[in-house]
Design a protein that fits this description.
- The chain is α+β, with helices and mostly antiparallel strands.
- The chain is built from 6 helices and 10 strands.
- The protein is 25% helix and 26% strand.
- Strands 5-1-2-7-10-9-8-6 form an 8-stranded mixed sheet.
- Strand 9 and strand 10 form a beta hairpin.
- Helix 4 runs parallel beside helix 6.
- The longest helix has 15 residues.
Length: 269
């Protein structure tokens, strides 16, 4: 069953406009959710906003956003005021410029969304924009209000649609140089690099979503099933620590053992 669109609006490039629909490309709806419970009564515990000074509960209609400009001094905003700031990009994705797709590092990518034409009439205009980006290997830069905040977004073609990536702002990405400054001063030995290359090649696989299954989620489902049957929970296996010599891992010995282990477990061709 097709995912229901959570956003509908317009895609615009100069004078070319078409109606589009968008939905998040990822979901966490299948993940386990836990409630806070009262151990003594077995009842759920609910969250409640209270006044920091009086301690009294505050109704939803009395809650507003506040920006702290000093101690106990706030600039108050209604939800409608915050929405009006980005009003023009609320329902229109207006592509302002194009960049080579390879020029944006992965660290700037935030959340992906699928974008598709909203009706039959819009398919041709949508396809013209998509194929132009595909042929030039570029992505479109635009601004869009999502989740009550205006974002810079990147549009890239994918199959018969596009992926809209929200992008992180400049002040959200830290400079890596100070962190990595001294991490590459010691060059590894040539033999170690050769052995590590062989180890990587021994574990090379084609990509499949099964490679990133969540073992914690699976284990939690098992525990829930066991407890539902009033079974005892089994203890998780302990992972042995790597052998060390003088508190330092012997890299060459570890590589030799790793390669030997890979040869034993490698599937026969």
């Amino acid at each position: 069953m097709a995912q229901r669109a959570f956003w509908k609006g317009y895609l615009k490039l100069s004078l070319v406009t078409c109606r589009v629909a968008m939905t998040p490309a990822v979901t966490e709806s299948n993940k386990l959710r836990f409630h806070n419970m009262n151990r003594k009564t077995g009842n759920r515990v609910v969250n409640q906003y209270v006044d920091a000074e009086t301690g009294k509960p505050v109704d939803d209609e009395d809650q507003v956003k506040g920006y702290a400009r000093g101690e106990d001094d706030y600039v108050l905003f209604e939800d409608e005021e915050l929405e009006d700031v980005g009003l023009e990009s609320t329902r229109t994705i207006d592509i302002e410029s194009f960049v080579p797709q390879s020029s944006i590092g992965w660290i700037w990518y935030d959340s992906p969304h699928f974008l598709a034409p909203a009706d039959k009439v819009s398919e041709e205009a949508f396809a013209v924009i998509r194929e132009a980006m595909r042929k030039t290997q570029t992505g479109g830069i635009a601004r869009l209000v999502l989740y009550r905040r205006e974002h810079s977004v990147l549009l890239v073609p994918r199959d018969n649609g596009m992926v809209v990536w929200t992008l992180r702002y400049g002040d959200e990405v830290r400079d890596a140089d100070p962190f990595f400054a001294k991490s590459g001063e010691e060059a590894p030995a040539a033999r170690a690099k050769t052995m590590m290359k062989k180890l990587v090649e021994a574990r090379l696989r084609d990509w499949t979503p099964k490679l990133v299954q969540d073992p914690v989620e699976e284990r939690l489902h098992e525990i829930i099933a066991m407890r539902s049957k009033k079974s005892k929970r089994s203890k998780p296996k302990e992972t042995p620590e790597p052998e060390r010599k003088n508190n330092v891992i012997d890299i060459m010995e570890a590589l030799r053992r790793s390669l030997a282990s890979e040869k034993k477990t490698a599937p026969r061709k």
